[in-house]
Every structure is written in C-alpha cells, then in structure tokens.
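Example with several molecule types.
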Amino acid sequence: MAGNKITKFRKNKLAVYSARFILVMIVVALLADILANEKPIICRYKGNIYFPVFRSYLVDATILTWPSDFQNAEWTLLSYDWVLFPPVPYLPQNIDKNNMHSVSPFAKQKISSSHWKHWMGTDELGHDVLSAMIHGTRIALLVGLVSMSIAGFIGIVLGSLAGYYGDQRLKITRAEALINPVFLFLALFYAFGTRNYVLKDALSISFSHFLIQLFISLLIIITVLFTGYKISKLAGKLSFLKNKVNIPTDLIISRFIEVMISIPTLFLIISIVAIAKPSLLLVMTIIGLTTWTGIARFIRAELLRIRSLEYIEAAHALGYSERRIIVRHAIPNALSAVLIAIAFGIASAILIESTLSFLGIGVPPETLTWGSLLSEARQSPSAWWMAVFPGLAIFLTISVYNLVGEGLSDGLDPKLRK
Amino acid sequence: MLNYSIKRLLYFIPTLFLISIITFFISINAPGDPVETMLNRSQDERQTDKLIQENSYVELRHNLGLDLPVFYFSITSAASCDTLYKISNLSHRSILERMAFTYGNWKDIACYYQTIKKLEFSLPKRAINLKYLVNSLYNEYDSSRIGPIIANLCDSLKSNNCTETTTQLCLELKSSFIEVLKNQKNYMQFIPAIHWYGFKNQYHHWLKKFICGDFGISYQDKRPVSSVIWDAFGWTLTLSLLSMLIAYLVAIPLGVISAVEKDSLKEKSITSILFMLYSLPNFWIATLTVVFLCGGDWFSWFPSPGADWPDTSAPIQEWVPAMIYRLTLPLLCWTYSSLAFISRQMRGGMLNVLGQDYIRTARAKGMSETRVVWKHAFRNSLLPVITLFANVFPLAITGSFVIEYIFSIPGMGKLTLEAFQARNYPVIFTVMMFTAILTLAGNLIADILYAFTDPRISFTQKRL
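Resulting structure tokens for the full complex:
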C-alpha cells in the first residue's frame, strides 16, 4: 500500500518537482553562510591558509579567536596572497557605500569587478538584496519548521484523542476523574502561579531565556501530573471510587477546536504582539499555537475511520494497552493525512509570517525577511527589484508547499485511486 | 432541524464567552497605564500639585471602573493579598504584589507602605534629594536593596535638620521594614488560594458595556470606539460585498466549465491558473500593481495610493466614476484569491455531482448535455458553494488588512494597523471581538445552511 502511494505521488510530476525545489531551498538555507558572506571561504594571508567562514562558527562558540589582523577587519580590503570569496560576497547587514539609494540590477554599479555585482540590486541603505534573499530562506523555512512542529504536536495529540476515544470510549474510574483535575490545577499552579515572577523576569531578558524557564515549568507539570496519576491509580482500588465514568473526549476537544477556529489568527497575533517585545520566535510560537486546528481535524477524522478497522480490534483482542494501540498502531496509519495537513500548514505559516513582516509587526526590524524586504518596495516605488524578487520567493515557496500537499492528497485519497 | 439550529445557537454562547475572556485578558495585560494615557492627553500642566494629580488619577480610575477586581474570582497563592486592586498607582501595585508574594506577610507590608507614604508627605518641599530616595523605595522589592536605601535615608535626614515627626517616621519605617523581614512566611507562596469577588468586577462591567454597544473611548482621537469602527466598517463592508459579488459571478462559470470539460486543455489551463492565483500572496500582487501601474517609473494607468479620495459631496455622476477608477486595483487584489477558492470548490462539487447515478440516468434518457449540466447538476452543486459565503465573508474582512494598508483605504484593516502602531488598545480589542463574532456567526450560518440544503446530512444522529 505504501509503495502504491509513492508511485501515485511520483506520477504527479509537478509535486515531485516541488519536493525537489524544497530540497534545494533546504540546502540554500543550510549553506546560506557559505553562499552569501562577507568573509572569504578560503584564503592565504601572510603565508597562512585560513577558512574564515568556518572559523567564524568556532569563534562564536568561543573555541578559537581571530588573529589580530582579522579582528574588525574590512574583509574585502585585506591584501591576500590568494583568496576565494563566496558567490555572493555580502552579508545582508553589509552596507555597500558605493551603491546606496537603490541601485538597479541592470544599472551601472560602482564595483571593482563582476564578482562584486549586486545581482538583485541594492536597497535604499545599500544592502545587497540577493544576500538578504538567501539568508531570508533560513527564516522562511524556520518559520515553517518551528510553527508546524508546535502545531503538529498539539494537533496530533488532541486530534487522535478526540478521534480514537470519541464520546463513548474513554471510561475512567471515579478516582481518576476526581483526583487528576485536582493535580492538574496544582501542576498549573506550581508551574505558572508560583513561578510567575521567574517567568516574567526571564521574558524581560529575552524570549530564549523565557523558553528555558518555560521548559522547567513543563517539567514541573509533568512531575505533578504523574504523581497525581499514580495516586489516582492507588485510590481507584477503593470500592466507592472504583466505578467508571464516561468522558466525552470528542465533544470537549471538538468544541475547543471550534473556539480556536473562530479566533481570527492574524488579529490574535497582532494583539499579542502589540503587548510583547517583537521576536521571531514569539511569532513562530503563536502561529503554531493558533494553526494546529487543521491538523487536529484531519487526524481526528482519520482516527474515527481507523478505530473501527479490524486490525485495531485484533490489537484489543491481543490485550494491548490503549496507549500502545493509539501510539503504535492507530497514529502511524493516520500519519499520511497529517503530512498533507502539515504541507498546507507550512504554506500558510510562511504566508502569515511574511504578511506580518510586510506590515512591520512582530518581527524585529533588524531581522531581514522576505516580507520586510518586500515592504521596502513601498517606500521606494521606483525600485521594482525590491518588489519582484522577495515576492517571487514568497510565492514560489507557498505554491511549492501547496503543490506537495495537493500531490500527497491525490496520492493518498482512496476515492481518487483508479 | 430546528433542534439542530437551537443546539448550535446554544453552543455559540460559551464559545463567545471564551473568546471574550481571551480578548479581555490580553487587553488587561497590555503595557502602559490606561488611566495615565487618558490623563496625559487631557491635562497638559504636569507641574500641578502632586496631591491634585493623584486625586484626579483616582477619580478617573474610578470612573473607568479600573478600581474593581479584574474577574469574578482570582486564583493566587496565599501569600498574595486579595484587596490589592484597591491601590490606585499601577507601579506601586505591582511592586507591592511582588513583595507580598516574596515575603508572604501582607499586613506588615501594608504597614511598611503606609509609612513610606506618610514619610513622603511629611518631607520638606525643598529636599529633592530626600524625595528621590523615598520615591526609589516605591520601586524596590528586594530586601538587599531596600535596606541600604533606608539607612541612607536616615543619614541624610540627620544632615538636613528635619522636623521631629519626619525623623520619627523614618525610624518607624526602619522598624516596619525589619518587621517585614522578621515575620516573612516564604512557604505561603506554595499554598493556592481562591478568592471570590462577585459580579462587581472589571470583566463583568466590560462585557455589560460591550453588549450595550459601549466599547470605550479611542485613545487617539477621543471619539467613542463605536463611531470610529462604524466609519471604517462601512468601507470594509462595501468593498468586501462587492468583491464577493465579483468573485461569485466569475468563479461559478469557471468552476462549472472546468468540471464539465475535465482533462481538456482548457480545463487544465484554467485549473493551473486558478491554483497559481490561489497561492499568489495578495500583498505581493498589490505591491507589484502599485509599483508598475500606479505612476512610478513605469505606467500611470491608475491613481497612486496616496492620492486624495474623490469628494462625495460633489454631484453623483462626478464622484462615482472617480471612485470606481480609484477602487479598481484594490478590488482586483481583494477578489482574486477568494475567486480562486470558490471556483476550486465549485469544480470539486460539480465533479462530485456529475459522477452520480442520476446524472447517468439523465444522460441515458437522451437529455441534451447543456440541460444535464445546467438543470440537473448545476443546481445541486451550487447550494454548498453558496453556503461558502458565510465562511468566506469573515475571511474577506480580515483579509482586507494588507490591501487596505497598501492602497490606504480607511477601512477596518487600516484602522486596526494604525491603532496597533499607536497602541490604541480599546480599538484593537473591539475589532478583535467583532471579527471573532463575525467568524463565529459565519460558521454558524454556514452549518445551518448546509443542513438545510443537504437533507442527507443528519445532525441529530448520535455520535459514534
């Protein structure tokens, strides 16, 4: 069956090319420092051979330091014995003083040789557009990756719970129904109530500090919940607390999903970002926290179908635990549906992020993204290259992910299989 | 059917309630002090007596209802004080809250705070240095920093030859602080406590006012938010209705054609163009049209976004063409993505219907193809697409954001963005509530319409 799906996907040429395009983008994002950098890749300077691009990683990790000649050096002006510069010898933040005020790619640029040409022109301040585009690939892919990891996690957990248990299947003892909510309250209290100021202080330093503290809070939640779970198991042996109660899982989660869907994402992000410091990570987190509903609905529908299949019944008959059946048997079968949702989800996450940075909301101004590059075209309408290239990149990325999503759903949808 | 509609309406209420809570709590956490923001605009003379300033602050705070507890109940640690909301000064309140949380003995801290206040008012007017020291006490919660400040204060009092009472107060301050440290109960922060405040709270008042149509006052221009939003809403509503109309008029024939002539060259080109339109970000297209068509270095076929709006007081035959001319590009950019969406849905629905048995029967009867398509298939596939309207409409309102920003149309999107830049929270949160309500209502209407149009969908059936 899996092979069949793959061949079906392969037949969709556009989807295959799109998948390859994504691979190319990933390579560009990974190699951005080598493709576009002010430092040489390799050079011979005063008789010694250096790899400045790679060395800068080690310097950032405080393993090595720069030789005195390279400290705060104007890399282009040093007199090398021989040198190999990256294909685009600029960083996005480098200012080319000779080519300021938006120089067109076709205009005559004040450069020493064709290697220094600004292939996509420069912006008002003299930044190289191509370099910003290459480094922007990183941000675009990162937005897709981070926000969809968050959305995927929440969506898979909630969607599979709703789909697998439905409204009738989750039966727990009275002890569990009484004790677990109490411990959930305690867990939240100790994680966020008592640590309120710790979290606030961390947030005022930076968002990454905040994430570390948040992780500690999550550990506290897990520990307290686990203790509660064990206690409730013990208490469940008492005669009064032994009786089973039914939890309408699907009803609760579906209602929650409905609430989330009716909150306009863009507005929610704008109002949260209005009260917090601008940060790319924050934007990605909020996108993830608001877009999981699509994935959850997909996997819920898929698990509603799967749970009545015979092999699940067989797994029940073999006496496997519910958790094992869900995680090992039901979810893997639904993963293809999740992949489709994630492909479309990445496209919309990138669209939301670029819209936000186009509007200048949420992403700090010093971070150059495709959206913020495009917004510069508004200030200087004669600089057509500022409008064309970043927009084209956003468009290509979004449609490539959409095409892959389409290809996957064509390949996986049993109704279309001939 | 009726049962289903009523059930859906009942579900509507808790969802709306939840959204209002989310909106309210985001708005409560907005940085800055709303009372201060409103005072600063209305009162230029900052140098007035501190006591008068404080009185006007307390009065405005009371009028805005901000001296009430935030919600019906609060869940805090036992260390926190449940009557803290009564303290009017925002920064004092947060510092005291933190102190109460850290030391866990609110009574001593309250005593300490009162002593600082007394000391502040007993200071001689000239002693700026002393005032500075006392004021810095208001911003400290850490005992390692408060101690030295108090010691410093006592020393400076001696050298400044102050009155007896002031010196006395300073000593009192010192002892009250020692009392705070002596009686601290750190363990209190680990005990959860729930306080019930009843209906006299900020959320309740906010919701009551919201339902009655009072959304507060815009910080920017001092107008009521409702009238600000009403003006903007007119623009957005007109434009989005127009764009929906165009989208439906174009999308439905396109969808039908591409379904009927499946696998033909025509269908393939239509489908791929629609797919492209679907993924084209509208802010890119809008920027491109502005750069290339609105009088930059290229063509000036359309007026530039910064141009003046046609004067609506002029005779109607004069301003209407000018308005249409002005709105062509924004409408195009606004319409094309929903157009692509609708016609893709139409195509899917039509394909689905064309594969049904009764269509085969109709063809077998020898009916003409046009009759089969337009009379039998079209009607059945049209209804679900029309119900899409309810779903697409709220999207059209939020989707207008960027278009309004680029073409500077004074609608909801531009209003929200400007409010965002000016940190005009009453406007932001009202718009957010409205959009959420519209989205919810759209979903509700769509669901009920689906149930009406397709009797096969049974909602009363018990879930599995």
